[in-house]
Amino acid sequence: MMVAGAVLSGCTKTDVVSVEGASREIVFDAPVPRVHTKASLVKDLYPKNTAFCVFADQHYDTFANTEADGFTPYMRGAEDGGEGVEVKYHDTSLDIAGKDLDSYWKPDRSYMWPKEGYLTFAAYSPSHLREQVQISYTPEYGVEMEDYTVDTDPDKHYDLMFSHRTTDQRKEDMVVDTPDPYDGVQIVFEHVLSAIVFHVQADRDYSEWEYNVHLTNLSVHNVYSTADFRQFAGKESNEVDIAGMWTGYEGKQEYVAFHADSDDSIMHDQDADLILLPQTLDGDGGEPVRMELCFDMSHPDMGEKKTSHSIMFDLSQGKKADNTVIDRWEPGKRYVYTVTIGLNTIEFSPEVYAWEADQVPDLPPLDK
To answer: Residue 324: pLDDT above 70?
Structure first.
């Protein structure tokens, strides 16, 4: 997700030194997508073919004790508009602080630890985000972007993640003779979009009766597609500002999760997935978010004829099994809407789960 660089020479406040000197090259441990319902962070879930972008600021007191004007940009991707330094997976051998790493994450261009002070890091994934929207960064608020838009084509949906701050890092932290040796700067990501899954099924097997149910279209209407984003609530917050990061919603759209061009495409259970902006479902005083389900029913006694049906569900009124209403999509949550089609009734039931099995860019499998 782009290659960026910084000036590595000159006598400035952020002067760096070569690998042969007292400093060492900055590398990153395997990124960790946050697994909300587990006690510990789980590695090896972040795909090795997905680059991310990182920012770093230098400061001479701890992050908490440094005033806004006490930060100096250290990794910004100056050659690429200051939109972050792209970090990629590498599987070649590299000696870091006396430890031979056989896999690690780093920029294509080497960055060295400064002689003095600390570095604080923040990141976003995937790196190709900066090709879609203009990005700005400050130590206080992290990444800010305007008019981020979720494409109406589900094939272009991806898992957008932003990291917590990794504060007060120094080259002295590269300790290798401990039970938990240094493998690089740790980056912990949070999902900031909502995973929406639709599961359509028949209430029983009608094949012995020779009835066929064909799902032809599944779409959601009145969905906000564009919003502004801010990574952190302020300098005092190290965690991604889950509660208030998305603002300035606009551009309601229809998203087609599934469409069949032929009658024989769907004869059984069908899942359709989307990744959408977190938002309230009541329409903010306008039309609520609705799901439209279109299907055909046929039987040999009907000959060439079939009956076509279309039904709308108001998602803001969807009740879980415990009878509570799901009236909004939250960041980092996975919403599963199950529609059960019968000959006489159609049932609709939603459930919400933590976004457990973290993958990029595909939606993860459901983990209850």
So the answer is: yes
The identity of residue 249, as a single letter, is Y
Cβ contact 16:8 at 8 Å: yes
Q: Percentage of the chain surpassing pLDDT 90?
A: 42
pLDDT of 363 reads 38
β-pair type (246-259, 212-230)? antiparallel
- Residue 262 pLDDT grade (very low, low, confident, very high; cuts 50, 70, 90): low
Q: 207: Cβ–Cβ under 8 A, 6 or more apart, which residues?
A: none
What's the pLDDT band for 45 if we cut at 50, 70, 90?
confident
Amino acid at 280: T
Greatest Cα pair distance in the chain: 87
Residue with the two structure tokens 């700005």? 136
* Calpha distance 132→139 (Å, rounded): 22
Going from the C-alpha of 271 to that of each of 240, 334, 365, the distances in angstroms are 31, 14, 11
Chain CA centroid to CA 193, Å: 6
Here the tokens at position 155 are 């094939």
Please list, residue by residue across 132-141, b when 16 or more beta carbons sit within 10 angstroms of its beta carbon and e when fewer do: beebebbbeb
- Tell me which of 174 and 307 has the higher pLDDT: 307
Instruction: Report yes or no: 160 and 193 within 8 Å, Cβ to Cβ.
Output: yes
Alpha-carbon distance of 352 to 313, in angstroms, equals 17
Q: How far is CA 55 from CA 46, 52, 199, 336, 339, in A?
A: 19, 10, 39, 35, 44
Q: Mapping DSSP to helix (H, G, I), strand (E, B) and coil, where does residue 130 land?
A: helix
Which strand (E) or helix (H) includes residue 125? Answer: strand 118-125
Q: Residues 266-278: pLDDT tens digits?
A: 445 677 889 999 9
DSSP SS3 for 316? helix
Take residue 143 and report the two structure tokens written for it: 């990444």
The closest of 253, 179, 190 to 220, measured between CA atoms, is: 253
Element (H, E) at 325: none
Task: Give yes or no for residue 128 having a pLDDT over 90.
Answer: yes
Do 315 and 334 contact (CB within 8 A), yes or no? Answer: no
pLDDT for residue 140 is more than 80: yes
